[in-house]
């Protein structure tokens, strides 16, 4: 198992950044690896999944390459007052890892926790041809949420405003992006969408709204699970293990 801390210069960010990569090359020596992008909650870095879960064991068992980039306080966006993290995540990093590792970029999955879940779904909804599956744990569309006063500046830097309800119906609204996903010839959405949350989660309201939209859509492959107790890293990792990846 190769556990790699990669410091790289990002042309999208115009500065250096970091990511952690798990590559089970010894166990799967001749494999072109499916790629799993894992995004942390906002404010956590590229070590969050590694420190809080048993993701290394899962990567080795399933034969997948796991990439965990540092997304800083970007919410997965090309920030209004900051840097182009969406461009880094969806354009720059796939090219970079394909230069370093034997990967199958036709088999990419993206999953995140809390604000990272919003970022994962938004990336997939805006680039649906790029991912086979996308999942959010404990988050829906942040445009349905009220921002605490202490986070106003942070959110404004990313979105351009801390009044996220003003962004409903725009490119920042997951519900709108989902409604506009392109259909395949047989009238379905090719992207599988997974949503797992608890009624006690901080973003339960927006997760519930998105879940209802998914459940009532006849054209989407989906997995939705709602638990009674607030989710934490153990439950998020359990959710990840339930996904059909590898």
What secondary-structure arrangement, pairings included, does this model have?
Elements: E1 2-10, E2 15-23, E3 33-39, H1 48-52, H2 55-62, E4 65-69, H3 85-100, E5 103-113, H4 115-126, E6 133-137, H5 152-159, H6 174-179, E7 189-198, H7 204-215, E8 220-227, H8 233-242
Parallel strand pairs: 3-4, 3-5, 5-6, 6-7, 7-8
Antiparallel strand pairs: 1-2, 2-4
Main sheet characteristics: 8 strands, mixed
The rough form would be described as: globular
Which structural class is indicated by helix and strand composition? alpha/beta
The number of distinct helices, counting runs of at least 4 residues, comes to 8
Helix content: 25-40%
Q: How widely separated are the two ends?
A: 16 Å
Low-confidence parts lasting 5 or more residues at pLDDT below 50?
none
Number of strands: 8
Q: Mean of residue pLDDT?
A: 95
The order of strands across the largest sheet is: 1-2-4-3-5-6-7-8
Strand residue content: 25-35%
Order of helices and strands: EEEHHEHEHEHHEHEH
Radius of gyration: 17 Å
